[in-house]
Design brief:
Universal stress protein, 19% strand, Universal_stress_UspA, Rossmann-like_a/b/a_fold, UspA, 6 strands, Rossmann fold, 7 helices, alpha/beta, six-stranded mixed β-sheet
């Protein structure tokens, strides 16, 4: 079954729910887990005259290290093996969704777990959705964990039968 599980985390309550689900899933399957944090310095910052990205980038990397430390501690408590990873978007057009796709491919992930805020209407239009963009380009099953405690949304022919709601 699934032996390589990637979970996208960024420190929010929703991504914590996704990590918890991925931990349970990895524990039950005896799978390796790779928590992934993506550092994204918005493209708009690059266009500001005299902008120094070092401070913003360093702050995001520090946040990523804290998120990864928490993920590693949770993995140890759950008895789940794996290695966390931090990646960065770049100016070549690799947004967060594409960075997750590349990391999943490099890790040879059998399934990707991620949180979704479930925004609709104007808020979704303005804020966009990393989860939705990733779901459109994913090359493996995806387990989406709702911010609102509902049932997970799955994608992929294998996912609908074999991914169970976490307890």
């Amino acid at each position: 079954m699934y032996q390589q599980i990637l979970v996208a985390v960024e420190g929010s309550e929703t991504s914590t729910r996704a990590l918890d689900a991925a931990l349970q899933f990895a524990h039950d399957a005896g799978a390796k887990l790779q928590p992934l944090f993506v550092v994204d310095v918005p493209l708009l910052v690059y266009d500001l005259p005299g902008s120094d990205l070092t401070h913003a980038r360093n702050a995001l990397l520090e946040q990523g290290r804290h998120v990864m430390d928490d993920a590693v501690a949770s993995m140890k408590r759950a008895g789940v093996q794996g290695t966390p990873r931090i990646v960065e978007t770049d100016l070549a057009g690799n947004d967060i969704a594409h960075c997750i796709l590349r990391a999943a491919s490099e890790f040879k992930a059998d399934v990707v777990v991620m949180g979704t805020h479930g925004r609709r209407g104007f808020r979704r239009l303005v804020l966009g959705s990393v989860a939705e963009r990733f779901l459109r380009i994913a090359q493996c099953p995806v387990l989406m964990i709702s911010a609102h405690g509902g049932k997970p949304v799955t994608s992929g022919a294998q996912a609908t039968e074999s991914i169970k709601e976490p307890s």
